[in-house]
Design brief:
Elements lengths: L11 H16 L3 H8 L3 H8 L7 H11 L4 H10 L7 H8 L4 E6 L10 H14 L4 H17 L7 E7 H5 L5 H15 L4 E6 L13 E5 L5 E6 L4 E4 L2 H17 L3 H13 L3
């Protein structure tokens, strides 16, 4: 029987297919036999293994159950489906959902974990209008915002530190009601027992140690993960030697930013239209 050779470096779909085939081969199962265990056809298994069909979340979860791989395949499948996201971000999200501490610095727009549904929708509607994404990709981004926020409600609650560049507050997104609701959400977030919210004001000038968005996670085992992106590229980093300097810069940013009380006061002023 001719078997199509798989190159896991070619795409996330190829990597998933190669992993699925390897797990199946380890057990000596045919595609039809795996299909019976998963409740689908051998033809479907073949299509996923060779990258002709993307694994749905349900398919990947079923494969995890059959192979006893926890949620590894389900997490890997996210990268296959997340075609609207920059490289590295789908994997970052899987770590974020399990992190003990989350540190974010965002510029220009609200970070996803703080976006209201209306704000997220307004952002993505404009992206579709500009031709920067398809309607399907916009729906994917909006769904991911909701998933990330739901994941924050786990037990125990993660500590979440957020520094927003002042541009996040002053850049209008959607109509006035959308921005008012978004500012209200920030105030509510700052009042939570497991959060800290600060604003990096424009007048920080050259004292600002970071100029691009940065996300840093501290995992339950105290290992570090960072994610940084530019307009066209994202990079996930798990090497502590590389992440620690970024964490140092983040702490410097927090020290220079306004306090949470001052930041909330500014947000309230903007909400009332007095700043």
């Amino acid at each position: 029987m001719n078997r199509k050779e798989l190159d896991p470096e070619k795409s996330p779909g190829a990597a998933f297919g190669q992993r699925l085939r390897a797990l199946r081969d380890e057990r000596g199962w045919t595609q039809d036999e795996l299909g019976v265990r998963m409740g689908c056809s051998g033809t479907h298994i073949s299509a996923v293994e060779t990258g002709r069909r993307s694994p749905t979340r349900r398919f990947a979860a079923s494969a995890d159950r059959v192979f006893g791989t926890g949620d590894r395949l389900e997490r890997q499948s996210r990268a296959v489906r997340s075609t609207a996201l920059l490289e590295g971000f789908p994997e970052y999200v899987t770590h974020e959902a399990r992190a003990a501490e989350i540190r974010l610095y965002e510029v220009g727009v609200m970070p996803g974990i703080l976006q209201t549904p209306q704000y997220a929708t307004a952002l993505n509607v404009r992206a579709v209008e500009r031709g920067a994404s398809t309607a399907e990709q916009a729906d994917e981004r909006i769904s991911l915002v909701a998933e990330r926020q739901a994941a924050l409600l786990r037990t125990p609650l993660p500590l979440v530190f957020v520094v927003l560049d002042e541009s996040c507050l002053r850049r209008p997104v959607g109509d006035r009601a959308t921005m008012d609701a978004q500012l209200d959400k920030l105030i509510e977030f700052a009042a939570l027992p497991n959060t800290v919210l600060q604003v990096a004001p424009f007048d920080m000038g050259d004292r600002r140690p970071l100029s691009l968005p940065l996300y840093i996670l501290t995992m339950q085992n105290r290992s570090l993960v960072s994610y940084a992106e530019s307009a066209q590229r994202g990079r996930l980093e798990r090497d502590s030697a590389s992440v620690v300097p970024l964490l140092t810069a983040y702490h410097q940013l927090q020290a220079e930013a306004t306090s949470q009380a001052e930041s909330v006061a500014l947000i309230r002023q903007l909400r009332k239209g007095t700043s």
